[in-house]
Amino acid sequence: MEQDGTDRGRVVGYRIPHPMWSARRRVSREGGGVDSEHAGLEQEKRAAAVAAADLVEDGMLVGLGTGTTVAYLLPALGRRHLDISCVATSPATEVLARREGIRVGPFEGVARLDIAIDGADQVDPSGWLIKGGGGAHTREKIVAAAADRFVVIVSSNKLVPRLAPPVPLELMAFGLDATLRSLPHVVLRQAPVTPDGGVLADYHGEVDDPAQLAARFSDTVGIVAHGLFPPAMVSRVLAGRAEHVETLEF
Ligand code: 5RP
């Protein structure tokens, strides 16, 4: 195991020898540009997801997040042919997981999970996350809170010096206009309804102090859940880097 020694959280990075790195070098040699940058980020997501899949063991109850990074986790998990039971945070993840031969069941009747693995939109140096770009943050937060370990998988561009708007919100449909009146800088999404009947919106105001903003959202009636996840909830962040996966603990 090789330490990386950055000052972001407590870094316990390790290098993963994987064929994808030579693929990445091929991409770079063929000339820079947006396509190769995108390909590089996709490889970082995949590397973080593969590293997270390796944390799962036979017999575990596993929470599966939502998004494009989690889409790399599911085949990596499926390939391991483990005897695990999973809870999915979205219908899309449930479908993809089943396609990979992963057993997915209802969350009802399950009081705790061994591990939950999910992506994030932003991770700041103290471990605060913004999640919910895919609109699943309410279920994702419930699943993360139920897990003994919550592991976050990201590409390196998600590591930011400070959180910036937008912050996703799920609002109750009941009294929506009254809730919106009490919330400045909030814009409803184009296709706002969640599988649980909530209404998705984004807060575009400042995020100076995430703890203060999270407390304000939690105190606002009509907000079902906000996309700010505190460091206390996060066990570990696995961030794909150009040639390795960096592990951050907060
Ligand atoms: C969905 C989420 C996702 O984890 C987050 O948006 C990151 O997605 P992606 O892995 O596609 O970048 O919070 O609600």
Name a few traits of the molecule.
seven-stranded mixed sheet; 250 residues; 25% strand; Rossmann fold; binds ribulose-5-phosphate
Your description of this structure?
There is one protein chain. With 250 residues, this protein is α/β, with parallel strands linked by helices. The chain has a domain at 10-22 and 32-161 and 226-249: 3-Layer(aba) Sandwich (Rossmann fold). It has seven helices and 14 strands. It has helices at residues 20-29, 33-53, 68-78, 91-99, 137-146, 176-181, 210-219, and strands spanning 10-11, 61-64, 85-88, 113-118, 122-123, 129-130, 147-155, 167-171, 186-193, 199-203, 223-226, 228-229, 236-240, 245-249. It has a seven-stranded mixed sheet with strand order 1-14-13-7-4-2-3. Strand 13 and strand 14 (245-249) form a beta hairpin. Helix 2 (33-53) packs across helix 3. The two termini are 19 Å apart. 43% of the residues are buried. Bound molecules: ribulose-5-phosphate. Ribulose-5-phosphate is lined by residues 65-69, 118-121, 131-137, 140.
